[in-house]
Design brief:
The complex is a heterodimer.
Chain A lengths: L4 E3 L2 E4 L5 E6 L6 E8 L3 E9 L2 E4 L8 E7 L2 E6 L8 E8 L12 E2 L3 E5 L1
Chain B lengths: L2 E3 L4 E5 L4 E3 L2 E3 L6 E7 L6 E7 L7 E2 L2 E6 L4 E6 L8 E8 L9 E3 L3 E6 L1
Parallel strand pairs in B: 2-12
Antiparallel strand pairs in B: 1-4, 3-9, 5-6, 5-10, 7-8, 8-9, 10-11, 10-12
């Protein structure tokens, strides 16, 4: 398996523009996470999905952020409109569960998308 | 709510020496998983080691080992025979094993490890 694939690797955009980050989880994984990493705040969980259903989106900063998982192999994180304070590295990660117990409990991370909003 | 605390923002070690990174956590659960992740300058997050709370034996992976003190809620990482390639950010993480609404990974702020030649 190619692992978790994120695109693009780097994104530079102007303030006010819409930005869409993409993620393809590892095949068969049923948990998908979006994290944001900054120097000031470290790794923050934005949202996570289980079987394509959003479970906890309390980390989403504000209404400008939205995430979708239309199927088991694809997720997007959208920022509209973008602001300079959104500049960060955004990680997608996936993991596998087995019924009621989470097995292979570690999350596998993509390479991240470095977003710069100017 | 569960929290993970790494009290050492930065650490330094001489090549071939041993270093210990600290992590404490807070949870009311008795069953959970703990992890150490490494993030080198390439920014890829790499799993270093995993500990299951119901196992008393400390996990070991080659030069990496943990000291898991469940009662003290402490989970430190020991790196033996440090190598230049060990230089990275190290994150401690907690996960409730039963998924659902508590299925997320909770990370500490990280410790930046430098290795001196």
């Amino acid at each position: 398996d190619a692992g978790v694939i994120q695109s693009p690797r780097h994104e530079v955009t102007e303030m006010g523009q819409e930005v869409t980050l993409r993620c393809k989880p590892i095949s068969g994984h049923d948990y998908l996470f979006w994290y944001r990493q900054t120097m000031m705040r470290g790794l923050e969980l934005l949202i996570y999905f289980n079987n394509n259903v959003p479970i906890d989106d309390s980390g989403m900063p504000e209404d400008r952020f939205s995430a979708k998982m239309p199927n088991a192999s694809f997720s997007t994180l959208k920022i509209q409109p973008s602001e300079p304070r959104d500049s960060a590295v955004y990680f997608c990660a996936s993991s596998l569960s087995w019924g009621q117990r989470v097995v292979n409990t570690e999350a596998f991370f993509g390479q991240g998308t470095r977003l710069t909003v100017v | 709510a569960q929290t993970v605390t790494q009290s050492q923002p930065e650490m330094s070690v001489q090549e071939a020496e041993t270093v210990t990174l600290s992590c404490t956590y807070d949870t009311s659960e008795s069953d959970y998983y703990l992890f150490w992740y490494k993030q080198p300058p390439s920014r890829q997050m790499i799993l270093v080691i995993r500990q299951e709370a119901y196992k008393q034996q400390n996990a070991t992976e080659n030069r990496f080992s943990v000291n898991f003190q469940k009662a003290a809620k402490s989970f430190s990482l020991k790196i033996s025979d440090s190598q230049l390639g060990d230089a990275a950010m190290y994150f401690c993480a907690y996960r409730y094993p039963y998924g659902g609404s508590q299925g997320n990974l909770i990370f500490g702020k990280g410790t930046k490890l430098s290795v001196k030649p």
